[in-house]
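User: Hey, quick favor. My workstation is busy. Could you predict this chain's structure for me?
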Amino acid sequence: MDVKEIICQILEAINAGEKDITADKLEVDKTILRDLCEWIDDNDLAVGIDFQYYEVDFSNAKVTSKGEKYLKQKSI
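Assistant: No problem, here it is.
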């Protein structure tokens, strides 16, 4: 799967209110999931993702307006 597709899946899941987003569900390595979440946070596409530890916590995650624009651009 393409990195942009995985990022979109993460953002779509957060936007839908899903909290149980796992590397297994996305079919990626845990390190890749953590790195992608860090990229999402660094680019202000979502806030509230806790990726300080090996596991990623999405319980407080929200997609930003910039993240919504990213999703719209990638869905075209």
